[in-house]
Structures are given as structure tokens and as C-alpha cells.
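User: what does the whole thing look like in 3D?
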Amino acid sequence: MLANRPKTKILVDGGDPSETLRMKSLIGFVDGQTTNPSLIAKNPEIQRLIASGHRLSSQEEKDEYKKIVQSISPLVGDAGVSIEVFADVGTRAEEMVAQGQEMFSWIPNAYVKYPCTHEGLRAAQMSVHKSIRVNMTLCFSQEQAAAVYAATQGSKEPVYVSPFVGRLDDRGEEGMDLVRNIKKMYERGDGHVHVLAASIRNVNQLLCSFALGAELATVPTKVLDEWAATSFPMPDQDFRYQGADASGQLLKSIPYKALDLNLPWESFDIAHELTTKGIQKFVADFQSTLRRSA
Ligand code: G3P
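Assistant: Here's the predicted 3D structure for the full assembly of 294 residues, as C-alpha cells:
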């Protein structure tokens, strides 16, 4: 078990309650959990249904999702369980909020995930006014994080923003730089947005999230297993992080931008190709579990 708890809250990135329980006994605690449509589609119960030839209706899929998060909810600490709305690139904010409101009622510690798009930000703005906690997902740029800050100003609850480290690495960019840049930008803010390092692929990225002071990190069980197997190393004063691609080539650094957090959120250029691709992948994985007519 982990002797000294890091300041960064540790969340399990997954959709299987039995794995959350396993991580809880391995580490001694789990602060929270993040889920998404791809992770839910991989849930063993859903996979078992599909293997037996069953395809779910949209309602059944939603019921399964609810059951899964209700099992996870009591296992985790105050970082809560993030539940993602089913949104395609054309889904309107009002539709996302209607889903978000329902999902928020499933468990007492829910965070509703919306994408870092124009409609997702509108949905977040409406949600915080209704006291719905939000986690802004698929964040790939500092502009998106600035817009999250501006759109959710005044929120009574902490808002999460989730920079996706590994997916930036995948295209040769240093994903950890995005976490570093957002943390630096938020130093001038009021602290209402917490940085949740996501799409973590290895132990070094987890340690770097600690070193950068990310408020939270969501981690696949495979990486938590590796961290435990090496007796939970922690970054020391000399810790330096340098990402590399599969061939050992160093990743391209992402420069810091001086952005004004007090500007209206609509003024930031939030478009990002990886956000669009991420939404499309979630939709495809979600639909793979559904009946054709559902
Ligand atoms: O928390 C985000 C995560 O689920 C996405 O991870 O590995 O699919 O980029 P990955």
C-alpha cells in the first residue's frame, strides 16, 4: 500500500467496478474515477452481453452505465465519479445538459463530462448555474482550458479540465507541456478550475503530474499496477520528465501562451482536431454496443 499520499488526487480511468475495488486494496484508497463511452463499452458485463449476441437499446446502455457508476460511487473518495454525456459533433448544448442533469442524479458524487467544444462549453456554463459539477474532457490546447475557466467562472464547486497527455504524445507533441502550461496560466486565476491529467500511459507521466502539481490524475489500472509493482516511486527534487515516441525520438515541445482568463470564453479559438476525433471515437465505441435500430 502507498505510505505517503501525494497531493495530486488519484482517479481510476476505467469502467469496471471490480477493478476499482482491486485498486483500492492495492493502493489503500482511490480518490475518484473517470469513465467515458469507450471505457463503458469495454465493461465485462457489457462485453458478455455482446459476446452472447445481445445488442443493447439506448435505454439499456444508459441503464448499464447507471448501474456501473452506482457500483463505483461508494468505493471512491471526494474526487467523485465522472460520467460522460453521449454527444456527437452535432449535439446541442441543451441536449447535453438534459443528459447531464439526469446523470448527475444517478449518484451523490457525480461530475458530468462535456467535451471542450463550443456546445460543450455552453453546456458547462448552463450546468454550473444549476450547481451541476462538471469535468471538461478532450482538452488538447491551452485556449480550450482558458475557455473552460472563463465559461465556468462563479462555479461554487471545483470544475475539472482534463488535458489528454497520451494522445498529444501519439502525434509527436509533448503532452505533459500542456498540463504545465495550463497550471502556469491558472496561477493568475481564482483556483476554481482543477487540472486533471488524463490519457496517462505510463508511470513517468503520473510522476510528472505530481511534480507539476496537477490537482488530479486519472490513471488506467495497468499503469497503477506498474506503479505499485515498483513500490510507488515519487518524484524528487531532481525529477525531470522527457517524453519520447516509440522509436525514442524526443517529442515536440508545446510553447506557453499568455492568454487573458478574463476575456469572454467565446473569444478563444477552441477548435482542435483531436477533440473532434475523440468525440467520433467515443460515438463509434458507444454505437458498437447498440442495436442497429436503437
Ligand atoms: O481519461 C482519458 C482516457 O480515458 C483516454 O485515454 O489512452 O484512450 O487516450 P486514452
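In plain terms: The chain has a mean pLDDT of 96. The first helix runs from residue 17 to 27.
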